[in-house]
Amino acid sequence: MKQALIIRHSPEEGLAGYRKPLEAARYRIDHIDVSDPAFAQLDLSKPDLLILTGGPMAVYEQDRYPWISGELQRLAQRLEADGPTLGICLGAQMIAAALGAHVHAGPIREIGFHPVTIHANGRDGPLRHLVDVPILHWHGDTFTLPDRTELLASSQLYAHQAFRRGTNLLALQFHAEMGEDMRYYQWIDNWPEAVRISGKTAVDLRDEQDRYGSRAVAAGRAMLAQWLETLS
């Protein structure tokens, strides 16, 4: 079986709705936490597929999280070899940084379910499944677009929501995997200040998941399934 290695930057993050399409594509799913002592020496070039999950830290907080610099170095080596790689939220920012882009704080917290605009060059590929679908956003950082990549999606608040390079690299600022995972409630409870700054309430966010979550996850699964079929 092919191996999909999931790097977890935080216990509150994971595959969520993406697990089913990975299993359907016959990947053996392995996980490693960045807090695991073995992570510092792990060769990120070996897995058939690497998935970088989200997390509450920022790429530029390397003094606070020393493992970030080592991960970026090994990730850059993988990307240089065009190893199939998917980044989610912080994972997308890590990919951008590993490709030489600048990751920085954004102007506002983008939290809650709403659609992204899929650009014309994204509508002929996996992201077509997300057109007009409210999906979860939970971030306050953004990045410049890396060289030799294609911008696929934007939102009203953040221009850089998704990009790709060829068929083997996909970076998603949003959380199309979330909508049915109970860890979402942990996000709300663990980061009340982020909720407050976003201008929404915990009640608002729970209501949005009830209304949009299942549709968002279905779209995210369809997107991932199609992307997996294109990998070389």
Kindly describe this structure.
By secondary structure, this protein is of the alpha/beta class. It has a single domain, classed as Rossmann fold (3-Layer(aba) Sandwich), CATH 3.40.50.880. The chain contains six helices and ten strands. The strands form two sheets. Strands 2-1-3-4-10-9-8-6 form an eight-stranded mixed beta sheet. α2 packs across α3. The longest helix has 29 residues. The chain is globular, with a radius of gyration of 16 Å. The protein starts with a strand and ends with a helix.
Q: What order do the helices and strands come in, and which of them pair?
A:
Layout: E1 2-8, H1 19-24, E2 27-33, E3 49-52, H2 67-80, E4 85-88, H3 90-98, E5 103-114, E6 117-118, E7 135-143, E8 150-154, E9 162-165, E10 169-172, H4 183-190, H5 192-198, H6 202-230
Helix pairs in contact: 2-3
At the fourth level of CATH, the homologous superfamily is: Class I glutamine amidotransferase (GATase) domain
- When the domains are counted, the total is 1
Could you name the CATH topology? Rossmann fold
Described by strand count, sense and barrel closure, the largest sheet is: 8 strands, mixed
The CATH class assignment is Alpha Beta
What's the order of the H and E elements?
A: EHEEHEHEEEEEEHHH
- First and last CA, distance: 15 Å
Strand order, sheet with most strands: 2-1-3-4-10-9-8-6
By CATH, the architecture is named 3-Layer(aba) Sandwich
Radius of gyration: 16 Å
Question: Which percent range describes the beta-strand content?
Answer: 25-35%
Average pLDDT metric = 97
What coarse outline follows from CA principal-axis ratios? globular
Number of helices: 6
Strand tally is 10
Question: Which structural category do the helix and sheet elements fall into?
Answer: alpha/beta
Query: What low-confidence regions span 5 or more consecutive residues with pLDDT below 50?
Result: none
Percentage of residues in helical conformation: 25-40%
